[in-house]
Amino acid sequence: MQSKRTRLDRFISKKTGISRGSLRPLFAKGMVSVDGVVNRDTQYVIDEFSKVSFDGEELQNNTPVYIMMHKPAGVVSATKDEQHKTVIDLLERPDKNTLHIAGRLDLHSSGLLLLTNDSRWSSRLTLPEKKVRKVYRVTLANPLTDAYIEAFAKGMYFGFEDITTRPAQLKILSEYVAEVTLEEGRYHQIKRMFGRFRNPVVKLHRLSVGNLVLDDSLPEGQSRELSEYEVCHIS
Ligand code: URA
């Protein structure tokens, strides 16, 4: 999700229907305030958490929200879906429709899913160049061999995107179970990587994102807000 930074006059114009040209004298009169302070700078840049009032009326007053969910398999990582229950449907919060997903999981994957209304925070977690580690426990249909470790570490070329995956760490936990650490999250990445070995993924569970580990005590389908410390120290 793109950061929601925008120019103050553009934002007010969109909200009120007053043209930017007509807003200029109103700015000069001191009719605009940001975070409780009169602001006469039409080009001032705000984000989704700037508190904006115009002529005494509040136009925006959002509180940042950060949520950890234990996503069950069979629920779709989307805000709307015609066929399946979505992760948003699992939430019981009045603000749930303002949230977006910071790093999706496939329909049949489970584990740690993050939801927020803070697009800068979610971009920091999801952009491949930020290299935030995501750890998955993967159960395979066929036995694992040491050849997987090298192939994952070397990276694999994905023709569709014309990229080579970043070095990924694969630890063999048992004959059919591996722990995979990725620094990026390409489309169906883990399934496609095991697909190179013609080894179907039977179960895929995300254990952590950056420093944040899914709570053991959080049952499937449940969620909780992150602490300020968790929000700030996730990567
Ligand atoms: N890789 C996948 O293939 N699926 C996921 O849900 C996450 C990573």
Briefly say what this structure is.
This protein has 235 residues and is an alpha+beta fold.
Q: How large is the count of helical segments?
A: 6
Based on CA atoms alone, the radius of gyration comes out at 22 Å
Strand content: 25-35%
Which ligands are bound? uracil
Query: Would you tell me the overall average pLDDT?
Result: 96
Describe the structure.
- The chain is α+β, with helices and mostly antiparallel strands and 235 residues long.
- The chain has three domains: 6-60, Structural Genomics Hypothetical 15.5 Kd Protein In mrcA-pckA Intergenic Region, Chain A; 63-130 and 220-235, 2-Layer Sandwich (Alpha-Beta Plaits); 133-209, Alpha-Beta Plaits (2-Layer Sandwich).
- The protein is built from six helices and 17 strands.
- The chain has helices spanning 8-16, 20-28, 119-126, 147-154, 189-195, 228-232; strands spanning 6-7, 32-34, 37-38, 45-46, 52-54, 57-60, 66-71, 100-101, 110-116, 134-140, 157-158, 163-164, 169-174, 177-182, 201-209, 212-213, 223-225.
- Strands 7, 8, 9, 10, 13, 14, 15, 16 and 17 form a nine-stranded mixed β-sheet that branches. The protein has a four-stranded antiparallel β-sheet with strand order 3-2-5-6, with no helix packed on it.
- Strand 11 (157-158) and strand 12 form a beta hairpin.
- The longest helix is centred in the N-terminal third of the chain and has 9 residues, at 8-16.
- The radius of gyration is 22 Å and the shape is elongated.
- The model has no long low-confidence stretch (mean pLDDT 96).
- Bound molecules: uracil (URA).
- The site of uracil has 8 residues, from helix 5.
